[in-house]
């Protein structure tokens, strides 16, 4: 039996602005299992980022329940959510969010310093293919290399959950394929689920499961019986 890491029941997120209510996520129900690669696919405005924010503890639902393992995240205090983000979740963002005044290894070390059992920043940069580039500043790195630093920063904490928000959105096709391959490899190395939010259907070919989103709803979930091996993935 597959181990359930995340479970959502009837999750909704509303934003009220005067007389207007916007529903960004509408009655989402799902499970995320250990060691799987999940792609959340949908157009802009479909609710993908709202879902990711809830899963990552950056926001709380207006309705419904969300569990991490057996812990009810919807009942967490702000302090408990902060601890969950720090100790459990690794984040990879579209625009890297690196500090320009710090080198690659210093950017990664910032994340390592906030947890108790971090990996070696230098070792992790080697894992993502940046051995020898540790002392380069972001401006001295290509877009693909900057995203690799971002991934190293996420995994140096040994996260139990890796959440990626449009990780290829700022990259060309060659670097996009390389990043997806790297995320697949890191999920296997860490034995953790990886969720990738994207509007690009190409990424679905390597996923174990795909959540299709539209108008704030998870319209359907498809299981891929034969996901494309990472080494065969091209953009």
How is the CATH topology named?
Rossmann fold
Share of residues in helices: 25-40%
Shape: globular
User: Structural class per helix/strand content?
Assistant: alpha/beta
| Largest sheet properties | 6 strands, mixed
Cα-atom Rg, whole angstroms?
17 Å
CATH architecture: 3-Layer(aba) Sandwich
Oligomer: single chain
Structural account:
By secondary structure, the chain is an alpha/beta fold. The chain is built from six helices and ten strands; from the N terminus they run βββαββαβαααβαβββ. The two termini are 33 Å apart. The model has no long low-confidence stretch (mean pLDDT 95).
Summarize the structure.
This protein is an alpha/beta fold and 235 residues long.
């Amino acid at each position: 039996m597959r181990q359930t890491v995340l479970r959502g029941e009837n999750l909704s997120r509303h934003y009220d602005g005067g007389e207007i209510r916007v529903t960004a996520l509408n009655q989402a129900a799902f499970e995320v299992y250990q060691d799987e690669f999940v792609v959340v696919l949908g157009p802009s405005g479909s609710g993908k980022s709202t879902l990711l924010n809830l899963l990552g503890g950056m926001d709380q639902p207006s309705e419904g329940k969300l569990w991490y393992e057996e812990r009810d995240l919807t009942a967490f205090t702000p302090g408990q959510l902060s601890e969950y983000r720090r100790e459990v979740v690794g984040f990879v963002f579209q625009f890297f969010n690196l500090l320009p005044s710090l080198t690659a290894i210093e950017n990664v070390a910032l994340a390592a310093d906030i947890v108790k059992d971090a990996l070696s920043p230098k070792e992790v940069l080697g894992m993502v293919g940046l051995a020898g580039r540790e002392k380069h500043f972001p401006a001295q790195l290509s877009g693909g290399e900057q995203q690799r630093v971002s991934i190293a920063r996420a995994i140096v904490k040994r996260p139990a959950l890796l959440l990626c928000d449009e990780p290829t959105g700022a990259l060309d096709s060659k670097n996009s394929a390389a990043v997806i391959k790297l995320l697949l490899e890191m999920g296997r190395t860490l034995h953790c689920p990886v969720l990738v939010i994207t509007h690009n259907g190409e990424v679905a070919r390597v996923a174990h499961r795909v959540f299709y989103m539209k108008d704030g709803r998870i319209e359907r979930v498809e299981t891929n019986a034969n996901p494309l091996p990472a080494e065969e993935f091209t953009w």
